[in-house]
Amino acid sequence: MTRRGSTAARARLIIVGSGIAGLYAALLATDSGADVVLLSKGQLRDSNTWYAQGGISAVLDGPAPGDTVTAHIADTLQAGAGHCNEEAVRLMCAEASRDIAALQRFGVHFDAAADGGPALGLEAAHSAPRILHAGGDATGAKVTAALIHAVLERQAGGVLTVRTSAHATSLLQQNGKVAGVEFLQDGNRATVHGDAVLLATGGAGQLFARTTNPAVATADGLALAVRAGAATADLEFFQFHPTCLVSSPSAGPAGTPCLDRDPLLISEAVRGEGAVLTDGNGKHFMRAYHPDAELASRDVVSRSIALHLAKLGDPNGHVYLDARDVERINGAGFLARRFPTLTQRTLDAGIDWTRELVPVAPAAHYWMGGVATDAHGRTTVPGLYAAGEVACTGVQGANRLASNSLLEGLVFGRRAIEDFLSGSSAGPSAPALPPRTGNRLASSAAGAGAHATTALSGPPELPRGSDAAQPASAGWKAATVPEPIGRSFDHLEPFSREVLRRLMTAKAGVLRDGVLLAEAAEALDRWAGVVRPDVVPAGGDVREHEDRNLLLAAQLLVAAARERMESLGAHYRSDSPADAAGIADEFAETSRTRPKASLVHD
Ligand code: FAD
Ligand code: SIN
Fold first, then answer.
1. What CATH class is the domain 477-577?
2. What is the pLDDT of residue 266?
3. Which of 67, 254, 375, 464 is the most exposed place for a label (fewest CB within 10 A)?
4. What b/e string do you get for 352-361 counting C-beta neighbours within 10 Å, with b at 16 or more?
5. What is the DSSP secondary structure assignment for residue 482, as one 8-state letter?
6. Distance 11 CA to ligand 2 centre (A)
């Protein structure tokens, strides 16, 4: 595909990805007169966004009693463990209501409360109910469907070009500026040229054996940007959602974690309605780890589950979500009305959650780190924007607050479009952003096969959250892991995506330590010598491209995790000096007396 002569006067923006960030940005840019080409590697709905359940956090003009934008900012900073970019957080929370209004103009309908106002859900670590949802627990599907409808209308009107099954494989650069994308479609190579590229390629849950993410989440955007020389940030922080349905409770080879092929996230909003976690002995264990129990921030709840299971001698096992009282207290039919999708999906899995417990375990969910951007979505490479989960604006800090991701995609997707329309992306330089953990590897990885690289010049540090901020994990009782998981992993196995995913879960998952991370790095480096993730494959096999992207992303994540010696947010090192002294006696005690948790759900 080449630049169209008839639209030469209109600035052309190529958007890669059709989740909330890409679709919303495409609509805004098109409606402002830009010539937009939208590429997506599957169908338009194939994205993390489609699966979002809980909703979108936003303090509206008529907020819940007592809620304020200031409170949303404070909750976000607290969940982020003092590692957020405060200015970016302020922008996101303050501008949320305008993007919610724009979503509604594009045809999104949020659920209404009995009084006709928006129905606002509560999720963990939010100090007030402020989660807008649609279709109960089908927020992502409803939002995506409306945005896709609007995009296809514009395509039919001839003002927007959509290319599906178009897998972006590399960024094209000209005169030091990103000026196009190479992609695979039906096994054939094609290129599209433009004035700038917005990466909206989402996350990388497929790095781990157990994930809430769909198959498209393979770190492609991050790998493309890194090979083009872009700086990354915060890659050590990967969030694990505490409650993913465990449908096949068997372990993989040599006791390593199993691969869940059809993951079902059980929304945090279920705990927001009062559901609790119990272990295989029926013990309600969360309060022993954190005073906020099930409504502690996500990193705390996932870590508590992982440590509790390790203490019980069953590190790859599961706990249970008990929603029975939610139904009892609110009356028969409440769960089906509030969570229709989850009610059906758990029934499909053979569980009537109004009467039975739901087996759950933490699963890789969201990458706080990503391609470093400023508040206008600009990366360190001129002509290259990033927005949504692929980007790291710093708003999510070391641990994302629930339902802040869809919001980030909206606010910073819009801000990137505003910048593009102002013409500044055509300027000679992108903003100076810091090379943070992982960049040394990134720079060396961006070698032979990359189309071009841009030298990073060691720019100043982005403003980060104040050290004085109280981390959300304050009050959390640490515990050492008696038997580090994954030691039995055979890291001499040859590379395959499945083995990579098991390695990452076993050695760079919820619980990490220096030995596990070093073992992971060794295996990854060995595989990299053969697979060459620094080089774009010449062939047309999409899976080969994804495998290399995943391997590159894994190397970057592990390198960043090895560099950060202390525990912070979602990055928990059981060998961190601060935690060594904090062993929770209660768990030392219970681990001696408690039998191994049952693996069987009955
Ligand atoms: P995505 O929605 O993931 O979209 C990425 C797009 O890029 C896809 O279309 C993909 O196909 C495309 N793509 C990727 N690589 C390429 C390539 N090489 N070439 C072309 N196209 C490519 N967040 C919330 O705020 N609230 C929630 O309630 C919530 N619930 C969630 C529930 C689940 C089960 C999951 C998995 C996530 C949830 N999240 C939630 C997180 C949130 O959904 C995501 O972080 C967010 O949707 C990311 O949006 P995005 O537009 O950045 O990326
Ligand atoms: C959920 O519904 O629990 C997921 C919300 C999120 O990831 O923000």
1. mainly alpha
2. 96
3. 254
4. ebbebbbbbb
5. S
6. 36
- Is the pLDDT at 392 greater than 80, yes or no? yes
**pLDDT tens for residues 144-194?**
999 999 999 999 999 999 999 999 999 999 999 999 999 999 889 999 999
Ligand 2, pocket residues at CB < 6 Å:
53-54, 267-269, 402-403, 405
Mean pLDDT of the chain, nearest integer: 85
The strand pairing partners of 16, in sequence order, are: 39, 199
Distance CA 40, CA 167 (A): 6
CATH fold of 238-366+578-593 reads Flavocytochrome C3; Chain A, domain 1 (3.90.700)
- Hey, what are 467's tokens? 């050290």
Residues for the chain: how many in total?
A: 602
C-alpha angle 271-273-274 in degrees, rounded to nearest 5 = 65
| DSSP symbol at 280 | T
Whether 502 and 256 have beta carbons less than 8 Å apart is answered as yes
Residue in this structure with the two tokens 């807008």, named with its chain if needed? 132
The first and second tokens of residue 548, run together, are 């290399």
Q: Which two tokens stand for residue 111?
A: 């659920």
Cβ of 575: how many Cβ atoms within 10 Å? 17
**In this structure, which amino acid lies at residue 586?**
E
| pTM as predicted | 0.88
Measured from CB, residues less than 6 Å from any atom of ligand 1 are: 16-22, 39-42, 46-49, 51-56, 139-140, 166-168, 200-203, 212-213, 216, 220-221, 265, 366, 388-390, 403-406, 409
CATH number attached to the domain at 12-237+368-443: 3.50.50.60
For residues 570 and 363, is the Cβ–Cβ distance under 8 A?
no
Catalytically annotated residues: 298
Could you tell me if 266 and 256 are in contact, meaning their C-beta atoms sit under 8 angstroms apart? no
- Decide if pLDDT at 455 tops 70: no
Q: What is the phi/psi pair of residue 167, to 5°?
A: -95, 110
Supply the pLDDT for residue 260: 62
Q: Which ligand is nearest to the CA of 266?
A: 2
Question: SS3 for 243?
Answer: strand
What are the extents of the domains in the chain? 12-237+368-443, 238-366+578-593, 477-577
Q: Give 10's DSSP letter.
A: S
| pLDDT at residue 577 greater than cutoff 80 | no
The two three-digit tokens of residue 460, written as one number:
């100043």
- The distance in angstroms from the start CA to the end CA of the chain is 56
What is the rounded distance in angstroms from the CA atom of residue 366 to the CA atom of residue 515? 24
Contact between residue 273 and residue 326 where contact means Cβ atoms under 8 Å apart: yes
Give how far Cα 372 sits from Cα of 368, 422, 431, Å.
11, 21, 10
C-alpha span between 97 and 395 (Å, rounded): 17
| Residue tagged 């290399």 (tokens) | 548
